[in-house]
Design goal:
heterodimer; A: mainly beta; 4-stranded antiparallel β-sheet; 0% helix; 50% strand; B: 7-stranded mixed β-sheet
Chain lengths: 112, 114
């Protein structure tokens, strides 16, 4: 079946540090890939997405590239801020289906 | 545009009581999802609907849980009777086919069963 594996958290960084959160997936077809972010006490918000191989999704300084050869979709940001502290979820959905399969989430803590 | 609207935002109830969670999806969306989030199990898909019809309810934990979607703008998730292990955040989400499978979440209903 389809699955998503994320790196364990928490990830603790100082402000302005470089961020990478690893995500790999297993899928039978050609999924769309997503990163969602959840701030404390809130619901999930779509951060970025990519729908085919080699696509790069980007938003708010975050980027992720759909790598079919390594089945990965790692999230990166060049300089994190305290306000980026949240839980980040990698997810996939098969093209013909709407439902998302989520990873376990990675908590990011950014200190001043 | 209004997002997915859930109510109540917070509920504390006693074991054995009936709990009803409500959701209004984004207007025009044809898919609706109910997810549950706990520390132990993460995000779990409970059930989803397409054009008001339940498509997959394999994630519903047991018969105490039921979900309905009487029309395109309203859905309920009911737990009867509730148990302490049902304490979780319940998210409703919606999407539109052909939109790149982007799913939009509500802010969640935080349920505590004591």
């Amino acid at each position: 079946g389809n699955s998503v594996t994320q790196m364990e958290g928490p990830v603790t960084l100082s402000e302005e540090a470089f961020l990478t959160i690893n995500c790999t997936y297993t899928a039978t077809g050609y999924p769309s890939l997503f990163w969602y972010v959840q701030y404390p006490g809130e619901g999930l918000q779509l951060l970025l997405k990519a729908t085919k191989a080699d696509d790069k999704g980007s938003n708010k300084g975050f980027e992720a590239t759909y790598r079919k050869e390594t089945t990965s979709f790692h999230l990166e940001k060049g300089s994190v801020q305290v306000s980026d502290s949240a839980v980040y979820f990698c997810a996939l959905s098969e093209r013909s289906f709407q439902k998302l399969v989520f990873g376990t989430g990675t908590r990011l803590l950014v200190s001043p | 545009d209004a997002g997915v609207i859930q109510s109540p935002r917070h509920e504390v109830t006693e074991m054995g009581q009936e709990v009803t969670l409500r959701c209004k999806p984004i207007s025009g969306h044809d898919y609706l999802f109910w997810y549950r989030q706990t520390m132990m199990r993460g995000l779990e898909l409970l059930i989803y609907f397409n054009n008001n019809v339940p498509i997959d309810d394999s994630g519903m934990p047991e018969d105490r849980f039921s979900a309905k979607m009487p029309n395109a703008s309203f859905s309920t998730l009911k737990i009867q009777p509730s148990e302490p292990r049902d304490s979780a955040v319940y998210f409703c989400a919606s999407s539109l086919q052909g939109s790149g499978n982007t799913i939009y979440f509500g802010e969640g209903s935080w349920l505590t069963v004591v």
